[in-house]
Amino acid sequence: MAPPNTTHPSSKATTSEAALGRVIRRLRRARGLTIETLAFAAGMHPTYLSGIERGVRNPSWGKLTDLAEALDLPLERLAHEAEEEAIVARVAEAAGARLRAHLRARSVAPTRDREKSRLGA
Asked: With the CA atoms of 102, 106, 109 and 111 taken in that order, what torsion angle do they form, in degrees rounded to the nearest 10?
């Protein structure tokens, strides 16, 4: 049984799904489209498109093709931008993890050592 206050693993967005969603949202907004307008043009429900943008839906190849056509760009460009976004997200997460580890290591230094450095000993 899962511990309380945890989410089901399938409800979490993977880096790739989240990156794809961010790219679609950015492209939609850059074109001045609402979720409803883009969803209608791509032949899907706005709720489904919202889920894609939030990274909680994993669209089929057909749905991605429909979105690329509705956004008036080649599917290859959509895939390329999503991959670049995923790489940036992975690098940023790794850097954040290193920074958090560094800060944790500094915050647990023994009090005696901190007192010595403060007194110049």
From this structure: -170
Q: Residues 46, 116: contact at Cβ < 8 Å?
A: no
- CATH 1.10.260.40 assigned to domain 11-96? The reply is yes
Residues near 26 by Cβ (< 8 Å), separated by ≥ 6?
none
The confidence score (pLDDT) of residue 107 equals 81
Helices (H), the chain: 15-30, 35-42, 46-53, 61-70, 75-107, 111-119
Could you give the CA distance from residue 121 to residue 117 in angstroms, rounded to a whole number?
6
Q: How far apart are CA 59 and CA 66, in angstroms?
A: 10
- Tell me how far apart the alpha carbons of residues 116 and 54 are, in angstroms, rounded to a whole number: 50
Provide the token pair at 117. Answer: 């450095």
Q: Say what the pLDDT of residue 5 is.
A: 35
Q: Are 52 and 21 in contact (CB under 8 A)?
A: yes
Total-model pTM = 0.71
Read off the pLDDT of residues 66-104 as tens digits, 9 standing for 90 and up: 999 999 999 999 999 999 999 998 899 899 999 999 888
